[in-house]
Amino acid sequence: MTEKISSYKYELIQETIANPEFKSKLSNILKEMTANDLASLIQNSPPQERKIIWDSIELEYEGEVLGELDEQLRDELLKEMEPEEISLAISDLEVDDLVDILQALPEKITNDVLALMNSRDRGRIENVIDFPEESAGGLMNTDVITVRAENTIELVSRYLRFLKNLPQNTDDIYVVTKNDEYLGILPITKILTSDQNMTVREVMDTEFEPISSELNEVDVYDLFKAKDLFSAPVVNDKNQLLGRITVDDIIEIGADEVQEDFRALAQIEEDVFSSPKKSIKNRIFWLSINLFTAIIAAASISLFADVFEKVVYAAVLMPIVASMGGIAATQTLGIYIRAEAMRKLNRKNFRYLFRREFIVSLVNGIFFSIFIFGITFFWFSDYNLAIAISIAMILNLIMAAVGGFLLPYILRKIGYDPAISGGVIITTITDLIGFVTFLGIVSFLVV
Amino acid sequence: MTEKISSYKYELIQETIANPEFKSKLSNILKEMTANDLASLIQNSPPQERKIIWDSIELEYEGEVLGELDEQLRDELLKEMEPEEISLAISDLEVDDLVDILQALPEKITNDVLALMNSRDRGRIENVIDFPEESAGGLMNTDVITVRAENTIELVSRYLRFLKNLPQNTDDIYVVTKNDEYLGILPITKILTSDQNMTVREVMDTEFEPISSELNEVDVYDLFKAKDLFSAPVVNDKNQLLGRITVDDIIEIGADEVQEDFRALAQIEEDVFSSPKKSIKNRIFWLSINLFTAIIAAASISLFADVFEKVVYAAVLMPIVASMGGIAATQTLGIYIRAEAMRKLNRKNFRYLFRREFIVSLVNGIFFSIFIFGITFFWFSDYNLAIAISIAMILNLIMAAVGGFLLPYILRKIGYDPAISGGVIITTITDLIGFVTFLGIVSFLVV
């Protein structure tokens, strides 16, 4: 049901945008939407509509919407805003979102915005801003409720009743010493179901290992996934409680990680609805790199130019070897990138994977080299040409596997992300090997 | 901290496996691990070690591990198990995991397993098994606590205390009529902080729209993400409460969706650590398709074989045009697949994207055709060859954008997933257009 309503609304909004006289109607529709719906509406609109929607959102709502947007788009919008506007917009945000936004600003603007904030907000921020955005410390919120171990459950119940409004999505409260050292978790459900005369110490759960503020966000995501957590406490290296992470703050991390790899493999680095100007710039980058590598491949072919004068069909068959090598290498590279992203590559299974890729390429190499021998012989009735292509095929498929596996390993060693540059480099290598081996053998056997 | 311990353990386990005399030691280590750690250990181990680990897990634990495994691997393990073993292993599972496993079995085995279960378990299952695995109904658990609106908070508190152990991760209980019709949510925190003499009706939250049992799992994931939910009630079309979905059951859906697209783009369809036999079969499929399309491209080249006799350098330059078209088409296809996966493609922004891709390809086409004209003229000092390649380049880049955008649209219309087959088809098209336009123009201008 929810889906239908929101897609109906979406169409309605787009129609309203098309008619500028309905501007006040647009504000009214937008006012009723949640920050997340607004963020997704902006994300999925072409640039011009994005601007109209953004300008129609009320100032006190802008902060929440900013908190829900993709980083790239958020930073674009922030660039257009004045420090005063930013400080007003973000003052009601949860501290983790607030700090994300401040960290995205140029340092000068950050200081201006901080100076414009009230001291309460500045205080909240100072606890979190020093943690890197991609660490548990950067993900956490500081709105935790803490109690002491020696209190009774009854006293805790009264304390919560006194607080009246608990922070959003509070499922656990935490037990700490008077120096804020973490002792354990007291689930809200336990407060309800336990004997009210028992002490917190008797009821609390001490088995859960709190998260270190330095843990990387991907590890935090994996931990939540592995242990079916709704929330978890974050501590510093002295085991002092700093805050808590809730599952809604980390739910997207898994998808974002794979998404980065997907974009890298498709050689796009942009948000889907970006402007033509942005897209052109972005694509030109990858196309230029590809042009460069294609020219290298062409240069390698030109070494054998005299072959074509005598064996015209070498030019016909040549792309087959290169293209098979390219596919095989992309497959192996894809496997490597996925294995690495799962963060479980160690010496032992690295060796297994390498051996397997080698065996797979050997078997497939033999299969396809026999197959292409038959096709070529049937097609051109030229025994030497068929021999040349089948040797080139098996060599290129094996090199595709070895290279598709060792190249990302080497790229990582020297500090590059294999997902981003791996594809272009490896297909250049397989193109080169495909062309040179095939044409080399032809010129040796045939010419 | 968690990360270090688990990777230390992982190495330890692999060493233990290598020494068969330590078999009892292995069971002891495995006994201390959570089901999810075991599942991830199996997932990240080569086939032989997988078997040793699986055989060392105690029967009553196997069910939980099965529940945490990737579908593909889970189904493989289930195939080796007897119905008796399965029914024992899965009897303690949550009902959503239990039903997932039953649905994965061949129908005959499912009936055998059901017959071996006790009536309590059979009863739990019958409420859920009719829902498709990928719907809200298939994701939900039925272990919900319900109360009536006319009761006081005090009575609810006493009822919960009487229940003693609430289902895992209970953050809300639900308010229903005597016919099980859904009325609202009563958060556990509200029970704690509200005046005990108020009625449930006065305290409950009626704003949240319950999830329809038919909602697709991706929409469920989006809803949880948009509204920062920990859990949500599921109703049938008569608004009767059926169960609830908790965030831990849906946290992986986002990543799984992108992962499928990634695998499709890399043309791999297997789990990372699958056996050589599986990998060979799988890769041969994609390589064969590629061989077929490469031969089509070669056949198109052979139409112009006489060109090479006169213009040898045509063979040198030919792959450049094809390869640029392939990259540009993959970029546009990648954008389309991502936009579609975000489930926000509608008529309006479809048109925007198509127009943008066209403009981008036109601008880049002009840029690269001028560029390649210069390079070719500088390299071979052949004016006609330079003209031919620059015309072929601009045509191929524009066709790459148009095809890269319309092809997935058409594939979807006729019922195919563009992520799976789109890449191969579109690069075949750009290869063909690249070769034919370039060689055609060369044979017209030069020969």
Automatic annotation (TrEMBL), chains A, B:
Which positions, given as ranges, span the membrane? 284-305, 311-337, 358-380, 386-411, 423-446
Name of the protein:
Magnesium transporter MgtE
**KW Cell membrane (keyword) present:** yes
What CDD domains does the record point to? CBS_pair_Mg_transporter (cd04606)
Q: PANTHER family recorded for this chain?
A: MAGNESIUM TRANSPORTER MGTE
Subcellular location per UniProt equals: Cell membrane; Membrane
Alphabetically list the UniProt keywords. Answer: CBS domain, Cell membrane, Magnesium, Membrane, Metal-binding, Transmembrane, Transmembrane helix, Transport
Q: Name one Pfam family in it.
A: MgtE_N
Q: What is its main location?
A: membrane
Family classification: Belongs to the SLC41A transporter family.
The entry lists its GO molecular-function terms as: magnesium ion transmembrane transporter activity; metal ion binding
Instruction: Supply the source organism for this entry.
Output: SAR86 cluster bacterium
InterPro entries from the xrefs? CBS_dom, CBS_dom_sf, Mg_transptr_MgtE_intracell_dom, MgtE_N_sf, MgtE_transporter, SLC41_membr_dom, SLC41_membr_dom_sf
